Structures are given as C-alpha cells and as structure tokens.
C-alpha cells in the first residue's frame, strides 16, 4: 500500500526518490551537494519534519531524509512488523544502497535508535552525529512506560487507528501555534486511513518491546561511536525526554560532545527551532 498524496511543492520543494528495500518501497529525498547528512525522523512524523533544515542546508550539504515504512510516503507492506529493529535494518539497506561514506547522521525521537542502530555496524563510515530529544538506552521513567502501556491498550490502539490520535492529539496538539493549516494537513494526509496507520499503532509499545535493541545500543554506541564529533540540539521543555535526565547520559556516552539548548522548544524541535538547529549543524560540521 502506497499513499496517494502529492506534497505541496511550496511547502516540500523536493524531488521524491524511491528505494526498493527487502521489506518494501521506501521514500526519501536527496537534496544538494557536499558532505552528506542523513536525517532520521521519529513517530508520528515523516521527512516533512526536516523540510526547513533541508532547505537551509542544501546549499552546503547533501541532505537525505527518509520516511520509514509505514510513515510518510513510504509503503505499508503486508507482513511488515513496524518494529524499531525492522526500521533499523531497512535504514541500513538504504545507507548501503546510497553508498554513504564520511556522513553525518541526525536522529530525533525514535530516529535516534533507528539512525544510530543502523550505523553502529558502519561506524567507520560515520563522520559525526546530531541528536535531538531521543534516548539510546532502555527507557525507564515511569511516565514513559505508562504512556507505552496506555497507548498499547485496545481502546487507545483503536483511537490511533480510527481517529489518528498520535497525529491529532500528540504532534498537532503541540504544534498548533507553530504550523499553518496547510502544514498541519501534510501530517494528516500521509496517514489517511486506519490501514495506513498500522505503523503508528506499533510505536508506543516499542518503548517496552524494543528493550533488547536499546540495551545493545547502550553498549555499542559508546564503544563504536563514542569518539565521533557529536552535536546535541535539545528542546528544553520536552516532558518526554527530560533534559536533566537525558543530557547527562549523553555526556557520558560521547567524548566529543557539544550541547545546544533550545530553551523554548518542546519535543518537535525541527518545527520549533529550525534556524537554531541549522546554525548549530553548520558550525559543528563546517
């Protein structure tokens, strides 16, 4: 199942590209020339989340932003489980397909584990890392785990599938004063039906179910990527990935870390502080 939606060229002025992975057809954009940056979104977003940053950086960098299977314009293939481990594997295939080398990877939300999970096996090809409001270890806070349990319950799963709860009541509720009506519709339009939202419905449960992958990342990232130049761009008002808990853990993970605090941003930092993130990336990776 592919999504029958064509983004507005004024809002998303990029050429759509496609990769036939072993699991299904993956949509991505590949804009500009220069050192490559791979942008990895979280749930319930898609590559549209990075549009401002890509537009700002594509005169200096080759900017690649991917939609995971089940998200954005990518396929919803039958039989795909939409687990974090599966997304990680497919992203690794795309990295190899594009023959990326000496590149920067940026991960946000689940894009942190997915992006870094894909590059731990390709660490010698990574130039640097950018992370924002994510975790690379098992998620223990009771509030996050309670969210996982509640969102995975049958009634809430029905609301995710039938009422597009994660788009309407999570993403758009936070960004209601940031997005135009047309921009908000671009988040809705790529998740138009209950069948299209199956990938969304899986992600809350992955907070608990992806523990083996997160435990492996907690070991592998410091060992294999811990010496890479790393930039942290952090929304300081995020209630899910609290800075007082997450930033010290990131400092312990990466030896060469620069932290840029985004004081007015919450979780969806690419929408709330794109210019600050752009400037930080350009400065960190000239």
Explained architecture:
- With 286 residues, this protein is an alpha/beta fold.
- The chain has twelve helices and eight strands.
- It has helices at residues 51-57, 84-97, 111-119, 142-152, 154-163, 165-174, 181-189, 198-209, 211-225, 243-253, 269-272, 274-284, and strands at residues 17-20, 25-31, 36-40, 62-66, 103-108, 126-132, 230-235, 257-262.
- Strands 1-2-4-3-5-6-7-8 form an eight-stranded mixed sheet, sandwiched between helices.
- Strand 5 (103-108), helix 3 (111-119) and strand 6 form a beta-alpha-beta unit.
- The longest helix has 15 residues, at 211-225.
- The chain is globular and about 45 Å long.
Layout of helices and strands:
Elements: E1 17-20, E2 25-31, E3 36-40, H1 51-57, E4 62-66, H2 84-97, E5 103-108, H3 111-119, E6 126-132, H4 142-152, H5 154-163, H6 165-174, H7 181-189, H8 198-209, H9 211-225, E7 230-235, H10 243-253, E8 257-262, H11 269-272, H12 274-284
Parallel strand pairs: 3-4, 3-5, 5-6, 6-7, 7-8
Antiparallel strand pairs: 1-2, 2-4
Helix pairs in contact: 1-12, 2-3, 4-8, 5-6
Mean pLDDT: 97
Helix content: 40-55%
Instruction: Provide the low-confidence segments as ranges.
Output: none
Tell me the series of helices and strands, N- to C-terminal: EEEHEHEHEHHHHHHEHEHH
* Protein structure class: alpha/beta
Straight-line distance between termini: 40 Å
Strand content: 15-25%
Number of helices, where a helix is a run of at least 4 consecutive DSSP H or I residues = 12
Can you summarize the main beta sheet? Answer: 8 strands, mixed
Q: Give a count of the beta strands, DSSP E runs of length 2 or more.
A: 8
């Amino acid at each position: 199942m592919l999504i029958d939606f064509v983004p507005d060229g004024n809002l998303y002025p990029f050429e759509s590209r496609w990769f036939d992975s072993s699991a299904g057809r993956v949509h991505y954009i590949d804009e500009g020339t220069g050192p490559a940056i791979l942008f990895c979104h979280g749930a319930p977003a898609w590559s549209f989340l990075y549009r401002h940053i890509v537009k700002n950086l594509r005169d200096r960098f080759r900017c690649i932003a991917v939609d995971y299977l089940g998200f954005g314009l990518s396929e919803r293939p039958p039989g795909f489980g939409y687990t974090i481990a599966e997304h990680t594997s497919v992203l690794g295939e795309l990295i190899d397909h594009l023959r990326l080398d000496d590149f920067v990877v940026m991960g946000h939300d689940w894009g942190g584990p997915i992006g870094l999970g894909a590059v731990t096996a390709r660490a010698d090809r990574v130039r640097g890392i950018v992370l924002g409001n994510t975790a690379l270890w098992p998620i223990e806070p009771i509030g996050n785990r309670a969210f996982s349990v509640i969102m995975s319950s049958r009634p809430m799963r029905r609301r995710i599938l039938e009422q597009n709860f994660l788009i309407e009541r999570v993403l758009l509720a936070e960004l209601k004063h940031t997005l135009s009506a047309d921009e908000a519709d671009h988040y809705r339009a790529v998740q138009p039906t209950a069948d299209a939202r199956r990938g969304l419905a899986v992600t809350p449960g992955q907070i608990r179910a992806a523990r083996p992958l997160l435990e492996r990342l907690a070991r592998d990232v410091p060992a294999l990527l811990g010496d890479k130049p790393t930039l942290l761009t952090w929304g300081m008002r995020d209630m899910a990935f609290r800075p007082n808990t997450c930033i010290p853990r990131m400092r312990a993970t990466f030896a060469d870390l620069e932290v840029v605090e985004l004081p007015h941003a919450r979780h969806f930092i690419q929408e709330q502080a794109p210019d600050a993130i752009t400037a930080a990336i350009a400065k960190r990776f000239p």
